[in-house]
Design a protein that fits this description.
It is built from 12 helices and 25 strands. It is of the alpha+beta class. Among the domains are: about 130 residues, Immunoglobulin-like (Sandwich), CATH 2.60.40; about 100 residues, no CATH class. Strands 1, 2, 3, 4, 5, 6, 7, 8 and 9 form a 9-stranded mixed sheet that branches. Strand 12, helix 3 and strand 13 form a beta-alpha-beta unit. The longest helix has 22 residues.
Length: about 525
């Protein structure tokens, strides 16, 4: 439904957003506090079928702006003008034809402005002209409903209450998982009665619903000859402050402990799973790749093998394009050049800069000025920072205005989650686990420059091996683990290449332990 566009004399360009009072369901949302966000997309900037509110767009960042709303009432306009928190410029500085869409973010119980319960406007196309003062009228006309769970004969979904998280967070909290069952699960004549489990941690923005794709894969004719025949368990890594990474954190609660002490035992009670570490594989890509690696290192008694691709930074001295221990700012380098956060490889040695760290941080600030947007940098703070008692929110690692790094936060808080630093400080434990259980790969042309940290982790492991040999100590035991940077692969292509490679390696692992 498209709202009407009105142009009238006004002190400056502005957007007026009203709540449609004719819909009883929307009226029930009246009176709520929240944040009104208006998304713009330049004419022709978005792929067909994409809405402005699907932002942020890393490939082509588009304007957005927001204001706090103390109480939203039907028929009362919320005005977005040059006083709003804006990216990349204020409304009055924008010129050209744009698509406009508003979201009222009032339900912070789930990550993201498009979470259930929030209100959405239609899309209006309007010109911002330097020779006139424009008013764009938007009406909130739809409540975002919860996404229905997919269905398939070999697909199950579970929700398990977590006493650990409920106590830590002070609110009822559940853990969710999608279960994709292998062929033969319901066959009384199948050679296996108990199955191993492959725990999948989705990347940023993914959740337990991703089990649907795995269920389809397992039911494809001929897949049993290629795909590991296990119960694939897709975890939900999302929480209000972002991707929690299954880290025990001050802001998100003891997510790792809750997984291994509550969810996994409950799944093993409900499903016919082998209850041995070697029968539990953990895997993931991107943020899920970091989480899988962290879980394997932190809970070696639970998981017997890890397969991680293109993980979020595993070496904080090579955090994308920053050294968090030495650099002054995550926005600019020592020469004042903007640091790229996301690139698209064109041809060898040539990339297109799509988004800088300054851009990304500014978009997060529009979505959550209190640094609670649930997007990537705010999500890392929620995983790795302590909670500021004055705001009850995670302490940011850098200053929003100029990207200046808070050295105390890095050294006393974030550094505890630096996997390469753990290797340097405790090689006897970490190197043994990495060499025996962790297969980790990353593309050499990763869009987020994650290959730099993976190379740093490999250097740390190699240095530990060399130091032990130089000291005349017994060598670390050999194992199937490895850390590799694959030339020319990107963030997206690496996910596909790794999956194809790992199906065979997972099967070999299970076979070696009598679980194939």
């Amino acid at each position: 439904m498209l709202a009407a566009l009105a142009v009238a004399a006004a002190p400056a360009d502005r957007v007026r957003v009203t709540l449609d009072a004719s819909d009883a369901g929307l009226r029930a949302g009246g009176g709520d506090a929240g944040r009104m966000i208006v998304f713009l997309a330049a004419d022709g900037a978005l792929p067909r079928g994409t809405r402005p509110c699907d932002a942020p767009f890393f490939e082509s960042p588009q304007p957005m702006m927001s204001v706090a709303v103390e109480r939203l009432e039907p028929g009362t306009a919320v005005v977005i003008d040059d006083g709003a928190v804006s990216f990349p410029r204020t409304l009055g500085e924008l010129r050209g034809r744009f698509s406009f869409q508003a979201v009222f973010d009032r339900d912070r119980s789930e990550r993201g402005h498009l979470g259930p319960g929030n209100l959405l406007s239609g899309v209006v196309v309007a010109d911002l002209d330097p020779d006139r003062e424009d008013v764009v009228e938007l009406r909130l006309v739809r409540r975002i409903e919860p996404e229905a769970l997919p269905q398939a004969p070999n697909l199950r979904f579970v929700e398990v209450p977590s006493p650990l998280l409920t106590q830590a967070l002070g609110r009822p909290t559940v853990m969710r998982a999608g279960i994709a069952l292998p062929k033969g699960w319901d066959d009384p004549n199948h050679r296996r009665r108990l199955f191993p489990a492959i725990y999948v941690v989705p990347g940023f923005g993914g959740n337990h619903r991703d089990a649907d794709g795995i269920a389809r894969m397992l039911s494809t004719p001929g897949s049993a000859e290629v795909v590991p025949q296990a119960v694939w368990i897709v975890l939900d890594p999302e929480c209000p402050l972002g991707h929690h990474g299954f880290v025990d954190s001050a802001a998100n609660g003891p997510r790792g402990r809750a997984l291994v002490e509550e969810l996994i035992p409950e799944l093993e009670r409900r499903f016919r799973l082998v209850r041995r570490p070697e029968a539990r594989i953990v895997t993931g890509h991107s943020s899920g790749g970091w989480s899988a690696t962290w879980l394997q290192l932190s809970h070696a008694g639970t998981f017997g093998a890890c397969f991680a691709s293109s993980p979020d930074p595993v070496d904080f001295s090579r955090f994308q394009n920053s050294d968090l221990y030495r650099d002054l700012s995550v926005f600019t380098d020592a020469e004042g050049r903007e640091r790229t956060s996301y690139r698209q490889p064109l041809v060898k040695q040539f990339d297109r800069t799509c988004m800088t760290v300054r851009d990304e941080a500014a978009m997060e600030r529009v979505l959550g000025p209190a640094r609670d947007s649930g997007e990537q940098w705010d999500s890392w703070s929620a995983m790795w920072s302590s909670v500021d008692p004055s705001t009850r929110l995670p302490r940011p690692m850098f200053r929003a205005e100029d990207g200046m790094i808070d050295r105390e936060v890095v050294e006393t808080q974030w550094s505890r989650y630096d996997i390469a630093r753990r290797v340097r400080e405790d090689p006897d434990r970490t190197v043994a686990i990495l060499r025996s259980r962790v297969r980790l790969v990353c593309g050499g042309r990763d869009g987020f420059f994650l290959e730099r940290a993976v190379a740093g982790l490999k250097d740390a492991i190699d240095a530990a091996v060399s130091a032990r040999a130089a000291a005349g100590r017994p060598a670390f035991p050999e194992g199937p683990g490895y850390v590799e940077v694959i030339p020319e692969e990107t963030h997206d292509s690496m996910a596909l290449k790794a999956s194809a490679r790992w199906h065979a390696e997972m099967r070999a692992h299970l076979r070696a332990h009598g679980l194939d």
